[in-house]
Each structure stands twice: as C-alpha cells, then as structure tokens.
Design goal:
The protein has nine helices and twelve strands. By secondary structure, the protein is an alpha/beta fold. It folds into two domains: about 100 residues, Rossmann fold (3-Layer(aba) Sandwich); about 130 residues, Rossmann fold (3-Layer(aba) Sandwich). The longest helix has 17 residues. The radius of gyration is 19 Å and the shape is globular. The two termini are about 35 Å apart. Belongs to the shikimate dehydrogenase family.
C-alpha cells in the first residue's frame, strides 16, 4: 500500500513540494505519494479531523496555516514553539507532532558557506522573518536587528525575540554584515522591480540572503552582486527545509546536489 503525504495551504499555486518529495520517494524506492491539498483557513479544522481518520503519514504546512495548525496537534517541538510557527507534521509513537524545518533550512546554507556575521539585519516582520531570527539566534550572531515598513509589527517581533528595532527609513545606517530579505519585494510579478534595500548602501563586505528566489537573481541580489557582495539564494532555504522534512518522514537524506539541479531546472529552466 502506498504511503500518503501532502501539503496544505492557500493558495498553493505552483508549489514545488510535490516535485521534491515525489522525486525523493522514487529515488529511494519508497512506495509513497505526495499530494497538494489547497485548504482555506475556514477548512483547516475539518481537514485536521480527516487527517487523523485517514492514513496520512506526514504533512507540509504553508501560509496561512503555520500558526493556526499548532492548535490541532498533540505536541509541538521546542523550536516550533519558540518560532511561533510550524511547517511540518509527523507521527511519533502514535502522537501527531509539529516541527519547524524552516529554521534548519535557513541556517544550513550559511553554515555550509562558512558565513558567520557579527551583525545581521532582517528586512521584514512576517512568518519567514521569524524563522530567520530563530536561525540567526541559533548561529550565535552577536547583534540582531529587525526592520519593516510597519513600525508596529517590527516592534512586536523585536520585543518578542529581544532584538534591536531599526526604523525602515534608517535601515542602511545599521552596520550589518548580513542582510536578510524576508519581504516579498523583488518577487516575480508586480513586485519584481523593487528591492528592500538601497543599492547605493551595498558594498563588497555585505552578504545578501534573499529569501525571495524568483527571479534569479532578484533586484536586491543583482544590486549586491554589482557592488561586489556575496548573494545566497532563498532557493537554498527551500531546498534544505525540504531535506529536513524528508528526513523526519523517512529517515533518508535527500542529496542536496541532485535536488538543487532538479529545483533549478523547474524554476529557471537551467
């Protein structure tokens, strides 16, 4: 019998998760399938009831359910609770657990590249920003600050994690070696021509980690490259959070080099 996994969220659009996990199942000869289940916020409760009644072994969770879904599980890991959001459900000893693999996904590309900044600035205050903050705390970054177009939201996030808050209009004044874009600015579509950071303030000592990964490079990434800086694509975060999900569900490690090739072909045709 084929094992069943899937993803919930709304909208799901062209999610790459089915591509990644179904490829992984095939590569390791695992009899399983991974499906996309678009789920509106008002449908979450009923879906979670059905999940317990049917043999779904694992679930990816994306916007807007990463926080609300925590109320429907048996246990949340310490990391999931500290972030205040989860993206992965799995069974352990008959209990439904919730975990956040976005933090591992965020950290791994920095660790593999030996990037260890003394100061970092997170641009944005949403759910992905929370994962970035948790990741940078885990990595021991000495000085962390957050900024956003909403001063109120930035203040809430800063207060919750004990961060510095920087005014959006003064963001270029903060002495950050690492700049993390956790806003949708630069994303393919109506925001593609935007950057969350002034190009003239970028230099060769900056590392830009743009969690937007389409197009490649983004406007922000192109500005950083032109200034001689280093750019880390947000595709790497997606890749490694999926690797961690797959490990939780199957105990197998997806080869990152092969997965990166698969994702680049799907995203960029190369």
């Amino acid at each position: 019998m084929s094992r069943v996994f899937g993803i919930i969220g709304h909208p799901l659009g062209h999610t790459l998760s089915p591509l990644v996990h179904n490829w992984g199942f095939k590569r390791f000869g695992i009899k399983a399938r991974y499906e996309a289940w678009p789920t509106l916020p008002e449908e979450l409760g009923a879906f979670m009831v059905r999940l317990r009644e049917t043999p779904v072994e694992g679930l990816s969770v994306t916007i807007p359910h990463k926080t609300p879904v925590m109320a429907y599980v048996d246990a949340v890991t310490d990391l999931g609770r500290s972030v205040g959001a989860v993206n992965t459900l799995y069974w352990r000893d008959g209990e439904l657990w919730a975990e956040n693999t976005d933090v591992e996904g965020f950290c791994r590309p920095l660790v593999l590249r030996g990037i260890a900044p003394r100061a970092a600035l997170i641009l944005g205050c949403g759910g992905v920003a929370r994962a970035a903050v948790a990741g940078l705390v885990r990595l021991g970054v000495e000085r962390l600050a957050v900024t956003g177009r909403s001063a109120e939201k930035a203040a809430v996030l800063a207060g919750e994690f004990g961060l510095e808050r920087v005014d959006w209009d003064r963001r270029a004044d903060f002495p950050a070696g690492l700049l993390v874009n956790a806003t949708p600015m630069g994303m393919t579509g109506r925001l593609e021509g935007l950057s969350p950071y002034p190009a003239e303030a970028l230099g060769p000592d900056h590392v830009v980690y743009d969690l937007v990964y389409t197009p490649d490079p983004t406007h922000f990434g192109a500005d950083a490259l032109a200034a001689g800086g280093l750019v880390v694509s947000g595709m790497e975060m997606f890749l490694y959070q999926a690797v961690e999900q797959f490990r939780l569900w199957t105990g197998r490690i997806l080869p990152d080099d092969e997965l990166r090739t698969l994702l680049r072909k799907a995203l960029y045709g190369a």
